[in-house]
TrEMBL record:
Pfam families: AAA_5
A GO molecular-function descriptor: ATP binding
InterPro entries found in the cross-reference section: ATPase_dyneun-rel_AAA (IPR011704), Methyl-DNA_Rec/Restrict_Enz (IPR052934), P-loop_NTPase (IPR027417)
Residues covered by the ATPase dynein-related AAA domain: 276-422
Species of the source: Paenibacillus montanisoli
The protein, known as: ATPase dynein-related AAA domain-containing protein
Organism taxonomic ancestry: Bacteria, Bacillati, Bacillota, Bacilli, Bacillales
Domain of life: Bacteria
Amino acid sequence: MITHRGTVTEIFEHPAMGYRYTHGRNPDASFMLPFEFIEEIIKLDAYLGKPFTTENITELKQAIELGKIIKELMKNNEIHFKRAYFKDNQYFIENEDSNSLFKLEDGLPNINKGDVKVRNIRTYREMPSKESLNKIAKKCKEYGLDGQALILKLRIWREKEFIKVKIDEEMFQELEGRLQEGVSTRLILKEDESDNLINEIKRNIGITNHIPRKEVFSLEFPKNQILYGPPGTGKTYNTVLYAVAICDKESLANLESLPYKQVLDRYEQLKKEGRIAFTTFHQSYGYEEFIEGIKPVIKSPNDDSMSDLRYVYADGVFKKFCEQVKEEKDNEYTNLTDVPRTDVPRVFIIDEINRGNISKIFGELITLIEPTKRIGGAEPTTTTLPYTGDKFGVPNNVYLLGTMNTADRSIALLDTALRRRFTFIEMMPNVNVLTKLGIIEVEGVQVAKMLETINERIESLFDREHTIGHSYFTSLKKDPSLMNLAGIFMNSIVPLLQEYFYEDYSKIQFVLGDNAKADRAHKFVLDTDIKVKNVFKGNPDIDLPEKKYTIQKAAFYNAESYKQIY
């Protein structure tokens, strides 16, 4: 197979915007050219075999300026996106309330959602919000451009993650193997199921997502996966999305476009149906709670006599879950290999998976959870359990979904056998989530920029696994007040920093920018010189701290304190 060869230079998680330039052709209203492409074709004498006219050159130059304006606004997090629909060669974009739309035409007029009947359109698109489009138009006007006309020619590619590739001079590379005749990579990798491929590209350029190569072209979710990242990055939120997506065989992109309450209701319904189960690992959690063990039972709870005490075999939560799945098929199938691969998916969620002793909890199960060793897999395997002597195997339609907090324990410290058998999906702080929620400013404080600055400093002073998650600030959507922001910092952010830096307040000052603030009234952490002679008599021959630190509560209620962080 022959393919282009190049280097991935950037991965971004917002829609890729371009400009509708037709050059007298391409009547499709959704057709677009990326702004970077326009910068190249304007250097040519002709495009698609047709020479450029003076009008063409003028339009292309304006499009290039439009692209630069958008790039600058994106850099400053001043553009956010809303769900969009393409119907009858027209674009309809949701308003902030998501219950009404506006049309991408002169004046951006509002329109009733029911009037255009877009509710059943499943293809997911995003376009800049009305506020963002007006912001682009206003900026264009400052540069002498007709912004109102230019924004009507904005277009997007529908997806949620994109890559930029710099093509090498050696354009083609021969790869081993070949696709079957008539089969394209678009058939191998469906449009809405490209997460694994994106993650593989990230892994190869150093943005580690730990997606194994063998999973790259799978059309299904991995059987075993762990969502990991710093505190507050939405792992619990995404667990609900992943569990529902697996059970309902739905794409994450489609679920993300729905109100979270709707997805959560479906999650609770699946739990009641027994298709989703949940447990949390901790230091004292063991094999007996997870698979099976022996537990004491008192016949009469009101009788203190020890003669009524007996011991019974008890199934653990995961064994019960798997046995329930197998019981539904026992009357239909007797041979392990006869179990169909199309069984209804079920999800077993393990929260805080890194807090447990993996070898102690999983035992021999660590082999049975491999996709090929599942009942119904390529090499179905069972084991004899140590207490009951029962034969036990893991059904092929059971998915394991774990979460782990990297601030508690690094992924590198996890049991190696577990790491080999799980796909790891990284959840890092994402300020774009705040922008999409409309959390832009709180009394002049740019929330996203502030969080980015804090995390850059934490990465420099500590590591990326201890950065601050965006979900700490999501409550600002309902209550965008300075009082709420102060509560977030005092009750969550500062205690987290104290834990990270073991109360090394000088580093906390660096993270919060206090070291560079001229006015002490704006400092979250105050430092005062210690005069040793005033504290101790004589000349103590020990190392003593030169400063003492105090938290200044008044600073948390001053907007200028936050502005001076960035």
